Amino acid sequence: MATEQWFVGPLPLDPGETPPPDDLESGTQPCGDPSWSTPPSRPGDPPEPEPEDAQGHLPEAPACTPSPKPLAPSPAPAPPRLSLDTMFSPITEQLCYLLKKADDFQSYLLYSREQVHKEQLAKVMPTFLRMCEPYFLYLEAAARSVPPIFGALQELVRKRLLEISQQLTLRLEQLVLMYASFGFVDLDETDPQSISCFFCGRFSISPSHEVSIFRYFAPAAYNASRFPRCLYKKMRWNLETTPEPSSRGQDSHVDYYFLCYRDTWEDTGKSPANSCPQIQKLWSIGRWVPLGPAEDDLYSWILCPQPPGDYQQLLTIGFEEPSHMLATDLLVQILTSPAGPARPPSAAGPAAWAAQGS
């Protein structure tokens, strides 16, 4: 059986025959080019048959010249590194969308002449705040997650996420305060229909401890039963403690921490008008210490208009209000310190808590 021959290398030369000049210049030949693989025709030479295997099949010629040594497998290409701007692109797009919605609500309030339309927008405001909750939840959880999930970039990513969270927080405060100034929103927390505070994130500091963040649109009276008086709260953190599966006889409970300030003019006996504005507010972080009603008495809770409590001061910050981000950082340092804010036993009295906070 004779077929057309395709060779990879040059044919052996007869005695006295000179190789073509191209063979001298290049030792390798391109694959798949018939001009390189067709042997020179010599008159009188019959075509040579190709060798067959034992079963009568012709062997297939290799497509390219085999390498004398096997090549080592090349390493897989490293995935391209994304820049921080690329990583944050979906997050910033969502931020722009929420900020745009806030601008629309403000424009309707300022430029709409229909009173009914403004009242409808005021009713939509709680819905808009709830729409921002998943976004806040992602920002705080991703920035403060334990253990870190961003490796070496953790600090850069953490700072950027928290700055975005703070930017949206301040914008929502400005928007709601503007609606409240027109009388369309009630900020009194004693009113069940009010929106005195809003949820702005949750994160875990351990497998059994989660912190939820709430921020008040306007300072609200703390109403401590004892010292200090004239105490106003600006932020609240709920520390939710879940017992481990191995623990028996323990129930989940929630501790409440606050960012508060008190008017220092009360200590000097001067009126606020005669006091220096720079030293009127002394900021601190403290814990709500419940004084009653009894936990096992349901009727006392129903009949109690407001549960009495005290303020266990844990940290004095100073006369300048900390930012939303810094205040939460300070609380995390308090909660994760080696000593930690030990939960007072139920047998301890208010005098012990007052002494600890003084």
Automatic annotation (TrEMBL):
Compositionally skewed regions (Pro residues) per UniProt: 65-80
Domain of life: Eukaryota
UniProt region (Disordered), positions on chain: 1-81
Protein's name according to its UniProt entry: UPF0575 protein C19orf67 homolog
